[in-house]
Amino acid sequence: MARRFDHSSEEICTMALHWVRQYLEEDTAENLSLRKIAKGIGYSPGTLINLFGSYSYLLLRVNADTLDKMSVEMTAGLAEISDPQAQLEFMALSYLNYAMAHPQRWRLVFELRLASDEDIPDWQQQRIDALLTRLKAILSELNPDAADSALEQTARVIWAGVHGISFLAVEDKLFSPSHLNNSEMISALIRHYLTGWISNTLAQ
């Protein structure tokens, strides 16, 4: 067991988060525990609670890192894509690809439940808001006359659909015919939804 002064607080946090990320590449969050993390890095559970505030907040830090990595993959190539619809499809497919490549880390983002007395920290909410802001900006290019409330709703609806397909793909429960694939389904969802959304806006 490491002594408390072997590493700084920042180093212990980094060690814990790295250990959890590595663990989730091989096993599920359901089999994870604060005690396992503490044992894995050679510190006590109490030390981790003191540093992170709670087990949930420790996992939330892991989720923040996951969102950062997804954001990088989803936006890295956008500057090279001029068509807004193609940008949305690129982001959606990047999201799907991350979910398929790192299913346990991806699941934890949506399965983690905070205690009733624990609020989502600003640093996590800002990450979520940044994704929606990016989506709304792209949708605004496609439909400049849309109100902000319509952009907000459309961004959430599209991402709910993308998330649903991604979830079923990760769980292997799409039951789709062999001639269909997950990427084509996501692209079809975006194309058809956007066509209807833009048409309805113009008709109002």
TrEMBL record:
Question: Which residue range or ranges hold the HTH-type transcriptional regulator MT1864/Rv1816-like C-terminal domain?
Answer: 91-185
Write out the coiled-coil annotation as residue ranges: none
**Would you tell me the protein name for this molecule?**
TetR family transcriptional regulator
Query: What are the top taxonomic ranks of the organism?
Result: Bacteria, Pseudomonadati, Pseudomonadota, Gammaproteobacteria, Oceanospirillales
Q: Show the InterPro entries listed in the entry.
A: Homeodomain-like_sf, MT1864/Rv1816-like_C, Tet_transcr_reg_TetR-rel_C_sf
Assigned keywords, A-Z: Transcription, Transcription regulation
